[in-house]
Amino acid sequence: MIYCVEDEENIRELIVYTLEATGFEAEGFPDAGGLWAALRRGLPELIILDIMLPGEDGYAILRELKSDPSWREIPVIMVTAMGTEYDKVRGLEAGADDYITKPFGMMEFVARVKAVLRRCSPSPGEKELRLGDLCVNVSRRSVTWKEQPIELTRREFQLLQYLLENQGLVMSRDQLLCQIWGYDFAGETRTVDVHIRTLRQKLGEAGNLIETVRGVGYRIRE
């Protein structure tokens, strides 16, 4: 099930229709009230969230979702006409998994929905990655540094995992965008930089393990 919060009825109906036509179950709501009521009934696989909403706006909804342990793991795609770099960075830093600017094509929209769902699927089996005092348990989706837990968003965790799995290798921004977000649309590499910055901040001392390779991308040093 995918929930869509969009106050413009024609856009909301188009999104729901497109999702259902491509094999998903979807339900739409014109405001936050409908979303909170639906979340009490059951959790969706994904939330499509507009920013400019009556009453509680998309940023406020996103903050509330990510602050609640019951909801924080639900991936969120923000869909909005607010397409400035500042708006995108604000949404991504608040925990959104992707950001789509209106107007958009339905084929691209569905591709990005599938990419987010694919990247957010849990990894089977027990798997642990270590580098010095940094420990990443993939199956439990937990991170510790010197045995102290570190809370990461799903996307930050996936970035850290991918860099550790390719320790010592330089990963370009395009590679990271393709591998972690599942698409390679031009002009979106800023998304990678935003997530790397917040990942480093949350890792604290361990953030120094992530090196910037000027003009290329990032790597975790051996």
Summarize the structure.
This protein is of the alpha/beta class.
What kind of sheet is the major sheet?
5 strands, parallel
Number of strands: 12
Strand order of the largest sheet: 2-1-3-4-5
What oligomerization state is this entry in? Answer: single chain
By DSSP (H or I, 4+ residues per run), the number of helices equals: 8
Mean model confidence by pLDDT:
86
**SSE arrangement, N to C:** EHEHEHEHEHEEEEHEHHEE
Question: Which regions contain 5 or more consecutive residues with pLDDT less than 50?
Answer: none
N-to-C span: 41 Å
Strand content: 15-25%
Shape: globular
Helix content: 40-55%
- Rg over C-alpha atoms, rounded to the nearest angstrom: 18 Å
User: Could you say which structural class the secondary elements and strand pairing correspond to?
Assistant: alpha/beta
